[in-house]
Amino acid sequence: MTEIKKALEILKIRWKEVIFITGLSILPLILGRLNLPHRMVSLICFMVSLILIALITSLLITGFQRTVYLEGQKQQSLMTLLREGKHFFWRMVNLTIIYFPVYFILVWLTFLIIKRFASIESGFWETAKTHPFAYQLCFTAPVLILIKPLLFMFPLIVVLDCRLFAGFRLLRKCKLLDASELVAVFIVSMAVSSLWIFTPNIKSAATFWGFFLVFGRSILQEFLGLMIMVMSVRFVASLGLVYNGPVASSDVGDLCKYSNGTLRE
Q: CB within 8 A of 123, min separation 6: which ones?
């Protein structure tokens, strides 16, 4: 439990940043409860607001990861997080462009497999109501397939300040078996995200209990997400990897060299 305790200690000391990032992350849920007029202008303003919130949140989270690596437990201002996150913006965008098509292709293939063997007649979106467990499995299975790049790809970029494809080449140095605590927290986070099956959705959470379940689950999920990021950054940093600039060869040995069991330049 050592790494879990260290991650919790960092989050505890940097609680102001944690609260702000978590609050900003669940803001779309709060906006989703508002009865906005069904006018085109209102809809456009709503969508633009969501995009801006997502952008600022992503920059803050990226800056948070970078400063965890550079400064550890030291508290940082929001402007510092934004400045550090901005440095990695385009690499974050490029990674997202690569990741999401692969992820959704796997989601669709998982659905086709489940539909074939479970004799599901409904379409994909209708499955959320008719077969919620099968619907959730469609999103869970691809995450498990992509667990290694999900956990380590961006932390590699943040820690080493390396190019995107250099990060992919170094990904083989990150062993899941060496990060058992991190994997355990990640699985718990996935379990929490699956609780939507047993809780009301944001539109139907009219009662206090329903409201508590929806937002409580979201807050817990965001907190676990930050905890996973801290543990991932610390794990990658502990490997002692060194990035030596642009890579022409696919050989990881061109990026870094071993010295006494630690990767050094």
A: none
